[in-house]
Amino acid sequence: MESQIHKIHQQLMNKEISCTKLVQERLDLLKSNTHNTVNSLLDTLALGLAAKVDAKIANGQEIGLLEGIPFGIKDVYMVQGTYTTASSDLLKKYKSPYTATAIQKLLDAGAIPLVKENCDSFGHGSSSENTIFGAVKNAINPDLVSGGSSGGSAVNVAKDFTVFSIGGDTGGSVRQPAGYNKIYGLKPTYGRISRFGLMAYTSSTDCVGPITKSIEDIRIILNVMSGKDIKDQTTYQSKTISEQNILNADGIKTVGYFKNFIETDAIDVKVKADFLSAIEKIKAKGIEVKELDFFESDTLVSTYYTLAMAETASNLSRLDGTNYGNRIEGANLKDTYSITRSDNFSEETKRRIVGGNQVLSQGFSDEIYLKGLNLRDQISENFEKDFKEVDVILSPVTPNSPPKIGDSLKDPLAMYLSDAYTVGFSLGQLPTLTVPQGTETGLQITAAKNNEELVLKFANFLKHTI
């Protein structure tokens, strides 16, 4: 299968290129790029690790598949000794005291981190414009947004600045920018990869996700990062997915799609036409396609943002300048807390904190928050019913094409609605992959929990079908 990781591995082993040269070339590209993808370069660390790989090869030693492969890290992951800013004023001088489990597993496999990548501050956004480092520009058309919140990660992969990047997906933050930049992005089953060391946005849906240019590279990285972690009690042990197992999709007999996602005025006419065209191509291959009933997209969005805002208000309550972040002194302690948070949080982050505190407050929590929890349970039950009828579910990634830079900041509601087709799968904690085929912003493939293998199988099938 097509794979940048395999290709570079062979080039290193054959001494066609040195690891130091490979890393330096990518660092130079990152340094000179005009897409605002970089929060900080890890050049000293990267070049030191590259020299060690070159020494191993020179001594005739075998290197692992990921050893020497350059990658990027969304700037919400802890990497010991590096700045971890969450693209915010509050943490712009914060250095990580430890390394996230998922990142450590990649480091242990020999992958080389190049860059901490620009993103929406604390993951709050769908466009990567809510950042102190400047809006991330789309890899294909720099006048458009890159998608969010993992916009810098997606653009770096799309532009070949990194071989792969590690984003974070809460309600679509890997899948949507992958679609906007025409690459692959996976949100795995909740708990498959440890969240330890990932700054919490919505703890009940946060997922570590790889972004790549190929299905095979998604598989490789997923296998390395997966597994139980005593530091994250939501994790579980999962089976390794072999390359051979995703080459044959004969076991997939039935595909479903949500008709209310397609039969709505909210979807762009071309996105709808392209999606239905993809469905016809799938049918032509002898696969049965079923229309499924699901919650209206506005219900999904309101449920997701009710819970997401509540959890972010709780998670960010610790950031008051006392233990973390850029403290601004006021006349008294209460004033210090107020000024520190008001001046250091972005407008979007403050909007979400205020909204979260509102739905958790006395008199509202029963009426709004508990109703959101109940709806989340209903959504999960609906998915369980659906996967008794179909093997996988196909959907557009977004209802519309990427907006121009600046438009989302003028209309936060429109930004929230761009997540209409991604948040449901997050609430269901299901594995979902964006593939760069089918519509202008790609397609999403979803399967039942812990069935990433089936998702990758169907992605491989679609690559040769659409």
The helix/strand order is: HHEHEHEHEHEEHEHHEHHHHEHHHEEH
Largest sheet: 11 strands, mixed
Strand segment count:
11
Q: What class, by secondary structure content?
A: alpha/beta
Give the C-alpha Rg.
21 Å
Q: Helix tally?
A: 17
Report on this model:
With 466 residues, the chain is an alpha/beta fold. It has a domain at 4-245: Alpha-Beta Complex (Amidase signature (AS) enzymes). The chain is 40% helix and 12% strand. The chain contains 17 helices and eleven strands. Strands 1-3-2-4-6-5-10-11-9-7-8 form an eleven-stranded mixed beta sheet, sandwiched between helices. Strand 2 (70-74), helix 4 (101-108) and strand 3 (112-117) form a beta-alpha-beta unit. Helix 2 (19-32) packs antiparallel against helix 3 (43-58). The longest helix has 22 residues, at 365-386. The two termini are 17 Å apart. The relative contact order is 0.13. The model has no long low-confidence stretch (mean pLDDT 96).
Secondary-structure map with pairings?
Layout: H1 4-13, H2 19-32, E1 38-41, H3 43-58, E2 70-74, H4 101-108, E3 112-117, H5 151-158, E4 164-169, H6 175-180, E5 184-187, E6 207-212, H7 215-225, E7 254-258, H8 259-262, H9 269-284, E8 288-292, H10 297-315, H11 333-344, H12 347-360, H13 365-386, E9 392-396, H14 407-410, H15 412-417, H16 423-427, E10 432-435, E11 443-446, H17 452-463
Parallel strand pairs: 2-3, 2-4, 7-8, 7-9
Antiparallel strand pairs: 1-3, 4-6, 5-6, 5-10, 9-11, 10-11
Helix pairs in contact: 2-3, 10-12, 10-13
